[in-house]
Amino acid sequence: MRRAAIIVLALSVSAAPLTAQGGERFPRKWIMAGVGALVSGAIAGVYAVHFERDIGGCSAVKCVVGVTVGAGAFLGFLMGSEMDRLYGLRYAHAPPLSLRGVELRLNVVPNDLALGASTVFVTGEQAVELIRAGPRLERLGMRARGLRGIGPVTADSAANTMFVGTGVGLYRFPLRGDAPGTLAYPGEISAMSGYGEIAAIGLGPDFQLVRIADSIIPLGDPVPEMSRVVDLAWQGSELLWVLSEDRLASYAVRSDGGVSERGEFVLPSIGRRFAIADTVAVIAAGSGGIYLLDIRNPDEPTEISNWSGARFAYDATIAGGLIYLAAGPEGLYVTRLEEGRIVPVGLARQAGFVAAVEADGPWVYLLDRTGAMLRRVPAGEVR
Amino acid sequence: MPSRSCARSSPSRWGTALLMSAALALGSGAIAPILAQGTAGDKVARANALVRDAMMYAGRGDTSAALEHLKQAIRLAPTLAEAHYRRGMLLARQAGTNLADMFKRRAASAALERAIRIDRGNPRYFLELGRLRLKQGFMRLDAKRFFNRALRAARERGDPAVIAEVAGELGDIYHRRYQAIGHRRLVTGSAFRFDPNEALGNPNYARDFLSERSSEIPDAGELDLRQAEEHYRAGVAAWPAHDASTTGLLGILYDQQRFEEYHEGARRFLRAAPRNPRAYLFYGLGLWRMGRGREATRAFDRALALMPPAERARLTNLSLILRRTRAERYERLTSAERAEFHRIYWSANDPLKLTVENEHLLEHLARVAYTDIRFSSPELHLRGWETDRGVIYIRYGPPPIIATFPPGTSQIGQMVGPMAEGGRIMLTGDVMLTGRITTVWYYPERNLRFVFYGPPGYNFARFAGEFQAYAEDARYALPVKYDNVPVNEALDSIAIQVAAFKGVGDSATTEVVIFADVPLRRMVEGVDLAEGPLESGLFVTDLLERTVAEERRNETVRFQSERQFEQRTFVAHLEPGEYRYRVEARQPTTRRAARGASRLAVEAFDRATLMLSDIVLADRVAPREEEPVGRAGFFIDPNPAMHYAPGEEVHLYWEIYNLVPDTAGTVRYEAEIVIRVQSLERRGFAARLVGGLLDVVGASAKGDDQVSLRYEVSDVAGARDRLPAWVAIDLADAPNGTYVLELIITDQHTGLTVVRRRSFTVTEPDTP
Questions:
Q1: Do B112 and B87 form a contact (C-beta atoms < 8 A)?
Q2: Which of A63, A294, A305, B730 is the most buried (most CB within 10 A)?
Q3: Chain A residue with the nearest C-alpha to that of B226
Q4: pTM: predicted TM-score of the whole model, two decimal places
Q5: Which CATH number describes the domain made up of B491-605?
Q6: Which CATH architecture has domain B17-182+225-346?
């Protein structure tokens, strides 16, 4: 018994300390060592009761109990150490964070999400699921059933219209009612953003301004970007931000639909999505992490900070003074800007495979791709 | 074992390993020019020269001469670490993992340890020793220690290439640990272990065992997988063009279906190593899995173009996906014949010619690329497609269910009889299982199951027991399948009726009319669109898959139609001969498609002999004009499937050529239509069938299983080169079944007779 205790003690002294563990988590190696000792002690106890004879070797009760308890504790210690190391790897960049909010299981295999007026649009493999964003999340129905390669979705509640981009065209659906959709604009639609009756459409490596009426009327020629256009956002009616895989560019938009480039921020890794909040933009740039940019001067967007703690930034948004980063299988990272640097606040692993994140007023919506779940959490609150 | 490439444009870490070693030696600043003999410095210089020569010999493949030169160099300058290192490296690479190479490994180890003792800060020495340990059985557990020391030394020296090399090795160590426990199943219930022999003999065993008698342990091996990923990422960060680290990282991302991350990683690799064909290969794999077929085609084409011919030949070799006898014939083809074979094979196996890309070829290349990522084993000199798992993966694609089981315990030993009575421990069960991980791949749709054994810690597994023979049987029945290709998931069939007519005017060609039923309603079922584009096309090739005729159409169709089928008619003018044809339809928005294909024998229509066109079976035939001169003068609503509902009328259309007119210019012929029962869905209704058909005016019964209609026609031929004819037959209460319709035309002037046949089916219509 004493020998076993000495072994455990020696191991504990030689064990390397945990790295980057958040909070006051009690190391599992000790808990598991204790559990192992208890379990093996019980087994040894049974042995002691039933086999008292010493037949040589280590068959005496004292020896058997000592060795068994020691082995059990050692095994438990090893298992606990593995758990601690896994914990250390999982939370190497941010401490664990728990999320409070509501969730809804989706009927589609989800890929992405978009927000409209009190409606959440979840794009899936072969449909768009509409969810009412009231006090609870309620299913409104499905649209665009059967379409493959669904990409960007935008909606205009007042016009009772939803546009769904696919690899072969842009389709128009009514938001309410079951009327079927129609092809509104042919081509590969990689991104879309509307401002009133004007919209910008990403057409692979180009983007095009269009006027939305009964039909879609192109305004001018497509504008070539250096690489695939992945996201678009308007800042007022005269400024359009275009995120391609290589850069974030700003364009001045004239009333006749003509555009001229104003500035750019070149990304060292692939740009995926971006969000604008007042004077800053946050770009999810894959393995490059997130870039926070000062966009007060559209002629010269400048980097405030970059954080690449996540293995891959799928999407990002800003809400309640925090930056939310959809990190895929890692979960949801919550970060904040402190003294000009992005610093992690926490990591919510229970959010699942977070493939998309969007902010809407006091709420942040998360899409769990593998769990097929939509979650809504209050913006700015972390525990 | 070959070294891992870290040069930016290194094509492969395989074949060029020794050349690279030579290049390293030649480029090494440690090797001074040969100086005069005499002093200690001279000896070192001469030894350096010998090392350089040795590596030149090694580069040429003359390892014996290289080792001899190194031996002399060590004799001249015993403290020349580089000589010991090179000797150790050569010996290590010569040595395999088997027992026979034990002394070679020991000598290599001694040489490398000596090099380390002389130059303790050189990361390459630790790296090579770590690699050697990987070949040394239980000592492979020690490899990690050496790699960690190499990593520290490389970081101290700021050598990114070595950091990447070591990170790749460490990543491999962790990933192989993960492979031993990933997809791990816990055996539950009364079962003791997964029995490969039972899986072989009992077709339900694998399915039942995996679904009922075992359960997957969630997150098994996550720690090792995460550590592997961290190391691979560190390797890529240190040297973005590093082959091994990138391959390892991409493999993990692919397996976890993190395709966005995979795409970015492959793109980064491509940018860092634009001359590396593997970079394009891996990039193409990601693009294909993301549904970007056109870009994937370009990437794979570029990969093949960049490859040395020998590697390209290995990668594109089709023998794995052919039946054995065919594969043996294929292997005997010359390279030119093989290229032609590839063209024919892939053209014939293109699921949709309407699309620019050949989906099956892309899938094949993607599978080969994946096997290269996942199953290649540098220490065993194996490329992924050469391994048992690689072969199965290339044939049948990603296994929907993977399970691993720990080494069995039954074979460790069981006590037979009480010890006091002379009992002994006996090995039981399959001794091949000892210490081996059992991996099961199960394809539920076709109930294919494959079991592999592999030692833990190695990226290697072989067929268990008799599964090699089972795989050969499966290969015979199903040489390859592409069930996982998206286009096949929604590929419907098109019913087709082909009818040949004499070409118009002086044309020597035959006019082949192809009536197709596009199952539009099924193709757009459940689609929330009022209308959308429909692509359709006819593709006619000769038997060598050379295009003879091609017609593509794009149109917008309404989706909400009540019609089950959309009929499309294509016309091709063909010389007499043997052809293959296809009619395809595709709805791009839903990516659903349909296809009908068959062989086609086109006969010549000569200008003198009495001849008959094919009979067109239709739902309705009606003349559009008073005296129609040919098919264009008729409204024909064809029945491409040649299926009729009970009670429906069967309408026939045909053309007669070269009837001989009498002196008044009148032609006379007798037409006889015989309908025979070929098979009935229900027996005992032949009499009713006959009775039903007997109601047709002019019909006369010839027996219990057939009826015949006969009538005579006289007509003025005039300038017409053909006489069109049509008739409608009321099948009345003919029962469900298959019938053969025979049309016999006899020229009453010459007495010559011609015959044409068609089969049709009477069946209940599909319920929409």
A1: no
A2: A305
A3: A89
A4: 0.85
A5: 2.60.40.2550
A6: Alpha Horseshoe (1.25)
